[in-house]
Amino acid sequence: MTINFGQTIRQIRLAKGITQPEIYAGVMSRSFYSEFEHNRHHIRVDQFIALLKNLNVDISEFLFIANHYDFDDENELTQLVNDLYNERNISALLPLSEKYRHDRSRNIRFVAMRAYLLFYGTGNNQNLYSLEPLTELITFMRETDVDGWTLFELQLADNYFMTIENENEFAKLFWAVDRQYLKFHALDSKIITQHATHYFNTVQNILLRHFSKTLLEQVMKHSQELFQNDSNAEVQITLKATLLYTNLYIDYQNTQSEAYEFYRALQTINYPNIRSLLLVHQTQMNNIKHPFYNTHGQLTNFVNHPSKTASEILAQIKTERP
């Protein structure tokens, strides 16, 4: 996407009815700003950020407007992958992955790899995939320092975790990613929701890969410490779902009843991700029948952490909605 920075700033300014001096004051001269609006000057990053601040527009909104009030190709593909997964249209993910796996854009190739992993990591497709189409993603993640990861790499991490078979390597990376997420909590409440989802996905991976009960307990305990008192209803839903999936391996009969009540409650409020939660639930149900659990039994003596009931979460959602 080619961005006309000055022209887009001018478009937003005029639409808001803001004068030029209100935008450039304290940032640059009148003449320089006038030239910038007509794309005849480039400006520094700090000046650009200051202009956005004066317009009360963030960078994602600016890029959306610059792209004619539309998402760029990467965001569109990401949204499509999310929609297909949430709608349980899993069969459509593989051809989508094949279509974009050789795209010129690395980021789009990475989204295609995510679609590939979601297809093979769901339901009856588990453990049937090859790592060969994921070589670029695996190499990229292994060769970059977690301490330098931004939100882009953190979002990729859940996909990368699906490729790790060694428990020690998995655990070491998990705690490094967790520390990195904490650095971004103050940026946006959505980051905390994304972090909670990371725990949700991590627990799925631990259960599906039959990693140790010790690691599972450590992850679950830390998730409770981080999110138990969070006021965001989305975080509480994710936390509750994580606990339910774990408890399927401890007290199958009672957890099934509790899960049914929980999903039914979410359906009454038209919770948008209910289909994907049900899909993960079915995946875990299939995993409980795995020979590993037939041989070793269910996860006994696991600490059953307290969590909010479905009614409490619904009450919280009602207070958040206008």
Automatic annotation (TrEMBL):
SUPFAM superfamilies: lambda repressor-like DNA-binding domains. CDD domains: HTH_XRE (cd00093). It comes from the Bacteria. Pfam families: HTH_3. InterPro entries: Cro/C1-type_HTH, HTH-type_regulator_Rgg, Lambda_DNA-bd_dom_sf, TPR-like_helical_dom_sf. Residues 9-62 form the HTH cro/C1-type domain. GO terms for molecular function: DNA binding. PANTHER family: TRANSCRIPTIONAL REGULATOR-RELATED. This is Helix-turn-helix transcriptional regulator. It comes from Leuconostoc pseudomesenteroides.
